[in-house]
Amino acid sequence: MNPVPQPAMEKDNPAPEWFQRAIASPFEDCFVTVDGCRIHYLRWGRLGKPGLLLVHGGFAHAHWWDFIAPFFAEDYRVAALDLSGMGDSGRREKYTAQNFANEVIGVCGDAGFGEPAVLVGHSFGGFVVLKAAALSQKPLGGVVIVDFPIRPPPLQKEHEAKRPLVRRKETYSNLEVALSRFRLIPAQPCDNQFILNHIARHSLARLDAGWNWKFDDHLFDDFELGNIPETLTEGKHPLAVIYGENSALFSPEIISYMSGLLGPNVPFVTMKSAHHHLFLEQPLEFVALIKNLLAQWKRLAGPN
Q1: Whole-structure pTM over 0.85, yes or no?
Q2: What is the pLDDT of residue 233?
Q3: CA atoms within 13 A of residue 142's CA, in its CB half-sphere
Q4: From CA 301, how far away is CA 304, in angstroms rounded?
Q5: Domains in the chain, please, with CATH?
Q6: Which class for 256: exposed (0-12), middle (13-18), buried (19 or more C-beta within 10 A)?
């Protein structure tokens, strides 16, 4: 993964007009307290429109969606949250799947969504939206899991046994040095350096001693995913899967297992040539895919 360039380099590689328009779109910074923790989220669109909630992956934050959310703001009330321990949300002594799911439900209740809401979760956020959908007392318009693999139990056990410990964060005295250390996990190519630059800047916080990443490095200490297939059976809502053709997380075995688990009525959409962080590589294609899914679900739901 190439490092994020220093600011001077951006003048020679300006972001395209569509991206500049998107990140310049007006939004609101909002907070809601969930299970005793202050949760930060961003909000676009008009009060009372159908809800669309975007949930980031592990160690990420709401601003990963800054260039995606505005494309939906005309028809939806869109929100993107910082899960606890990430972004500008508060921290917890211990993080649980139930807390994360409650945060999604809490933001849906606070954001002024019309009913029903659609949840979109990338990577670890895919797990969170599945858990939230299983716990939600309100009907949902749909759930989209984006490149979150559901592994066969033996593979899941093997994966968890090999999961590396998170290295404790380093503090950088210089912003440019900190930005140069930004990496995607898992590592992959991404030609849209302007997107990585934007995300990296929102990933850092200024401290007395310098610059540091916003996430809590104890985030996944002793974290338990629980029984994911069981969680799937608890939700009654439209479901779709989007994954990258070249994703490091989606092997043929996992695709086959998920297809059998979810059944023939759940669409599996492959983004050609894309990796795990597919909406960073192909943002406009990703927007088109989500819009198509939303339109299909709206037609199936029929008139209100």
Answers
A1: yes
A2: 63
A3: 24
A4: 8
A5: 7-298 (3.40.50.1820)
A6: exposed
